[in-house]
Specification:
This protein has 135 residues and is α+β, with helices and mostly antiparallel strands. Helix content is 24%, strand content 31%. Pfam families: Ribonuc_L-PSP (PF01042).
Length: 135
């Protein structure tokens, strides 16, 4: 399986992700929205956006590993943040950086960020979905 990340000419280059991914493989993997629960279902990082982002990305990595994949196979990420305002960007980036350091990767697939009103559990501040392509 190959995922090629591209920033085509004429589109801005964003340091934390690429504008386009081109994937070849045989299995499309859709990871359900991951929230800041550990393996036992306990909330990680109550009230701490960066800690919750970190846990969400770690959970995405765990889900991918469970089907034989890794962040290298991700073709699209979608991030939903409760009560999003631009001043929360440093916390979001900190959480991603912390997860990346633990995983030894830089999750740079195309991504969309949505500000939302609420998630299913009031303590959840963020949810991260992923799509991957595996051989």
């Amino acid at each position: 399986m190959t995922v090629t990340l591209v920033n085509p000419a004429g589109l801005p280059e964003i340091p934390i992700y690429h504008q386009v991914s081109v994937a070849t493989g045989t299995r499309l993997v859709n990871i359900a929205g991951q929230v800041a629960w550990d393996a036992e279902g306990t909330l990680v990082g109550a009230g701490d956006l960066a800690a919750q982002v970190e846990q969400c990305y770690l959970n995405v990595a765990t889900a991918l590993a469970g089907v034989g994949g890794s962040f290298a196979d991700v073709v699209k990420l979608t991030v939903h943040v409760v009560d999003w305002t631009p001043d929360k960007m440093p916390l979001l980036l900190d959480g991603i950086a912390r997860a990346a350091a633990q995983l030894g990767v830089t999750p740079a697939a195309p991504a969309s960020l949505f500000g939302i009103v609420a998630l299913d559990v009031p303590e959840h501040l963020v949810e991260v979905e992923a799509t991957a392509m595996l051989d």
